[in-house]
Structure formats: structure tokens, C-alpha cells
Design brief:
Layout: H1 5-33, E1 37-41, H2 67-82, E2 89-92, H3 96-105, E3 110-112, H4 126-138, E4 146-150, H5 152-159, E5 168-172, E6 180-185
Parallel strand pairs: 1-4, 2-3, 2-4
Antiparallel strand pairs: 1-5, 5-6
Helix pairs in contact: 2-3, 4-5
Length: about 190
């Protein structure tokens, strides 16, 4: 049987997507069971750091999500639902770009958590802030899916990984051992 070039391309892309979905299934299973958490870097927000005069709680003084970032956030929420997670414990940095990312996921009430706030402007605080977050995580039992929306520096401090905007690092938190990164889930296109 002869398959046309266009149909072959569609079948190939479909097979690749299926293979990719199967490859990430253990990550989603670990999230669904509460065995792992998702550390999500906020979605696309043009620029770096925050402008002079930044004030927590005043979004007009902060770097905010772009239209692309809002679309990414909704797509990430769709990805959670497509993988069997329609509800999760959702914690967020108090920065507007993180809170907006978390809310647009549409998978649970968003709890602002100071421990997830960026230390980009004060790298000397990184070690202490990371230790405090790790202690908090070790003291929690989520009992199901948990998503922490935060900043690149926070995720890097905790895991050693450098995620892109909208990328998730899936990790297990052990009582004594270091954080165990079990995979990445890329930003949906």
C-alpha cells in the first residue's frame, strides 16, 4: 500500500507525539500520585529581573506576562488536564507574573508563598532562601499533585537545573537526600 507524502508526514508526527507522550507518562504518574512535585518557572515575561521602583503587590511596577506568556499558562493548564490532573495544590511566588501564571493554569486555588519569591536581586540570600524552601517542602505531605510557580533562580537553587520560561522541573523531595530531578516537561508550543 502506498502512502502519500503528506499523509506519511502526519502519521510520523503523530507517532512522534505519541512516543513523547509515553516518555513523559512516568513524570505525570509521579505528579498525580503526589510522589513528585512540579516546579514551574513562570511563563514568558519579556525582559530580565524587575524595573527600578519594583514593588511587591503593585503589578504596574513589575515585569509582567506577555500575551504569549498568558497563552503559555493556559496551554500548561491544558497539559495538566490532558495528563489527568484537573486539580492540584498550587503555590506561587508573590510576583505578579508568577501569580498570573498560576491562576491561568486553572487547576486550583493559588496560595501565595513568600518562600517562592525571587532572590534574583540579592544572590547572597539564595542559599538561606533555598534551605528554607527545602525545609518547608520536607515538612509537607501534599497527598496529590502539587505545583510551585516560581522563578528561574529559585528552581536552579533547589535543583541545579535552569528552566526556560514555562518549563517544569519534576522532582522528588526526600527527607535527607538532595532533591531528585526526575524529568522536565517543556513549555507547550
Amino acid at each position: 500500500m502506498r502512502i502519500g507524502r503528506r499523509r506519511f508526514l502526519v502519521l510520523s508526527l503523530g507517532a512522534a507525539a505519541f512516543g513523547k507522550a509515553r516518555a513523559t507518562e512516568p513524570l505525570w504518574s509521579a505528579l498525580r500520585s503526589g510522589e513528585a512535585i512540579a516546579l514551574l518557572r513562570h511563563a514568558a515575561a519579556p525582559g530580565s529581573g524587575d524595573p527600578p521602583g519594583f514593588r511587591l503587590g503593585d503589578c504596574s511596577t513589575q515585569r509582567n506576562l506577555s500575551e504569549e506568556g498568558r497563552a503559555q499558562s493556559r496551554a500548561i493548564g491544558d497539559l495538566f488536564r490532558a495528563n489527568g490532573i484537573s486539580s492540584a495544590a498550587v503555590y506561587s511566588s508573590q510576583w505578579c507574573r508568577c501569580l498570573d501564571t498560576a491562576r491561568l493554569l486553572g487547576i486550583g486555588e493559588v496560595v501565595p508563598l513568600e518562600l517562592l519569591n525571587s532572590f534574583f536581586g540579592d544572590s547572597s540570600a539564595g542559599e538561606q532562601r533555598t534551605a528554607a524552601l527545602l525545609a518547608w517542602l520536607r515538612g509537607r505531605r501534599f497527598g496529590g499533585p502539587a505545583v510551585l510557580v516560581t522563578h528561574q533562580v529559585n528552581i536552579t537553587g533547589l535543583t541545579g537545573e535552569v528552566p526556560d520560561s514555562g518549563e517544569m522541573i519534576i522532582a522528588r523531595i526526600h527527607q535527607a537526600d538532595p532533591v531528585q530531578v526526575i524529568g522536565h516537561v517543556a513549555t507547550p508550543a
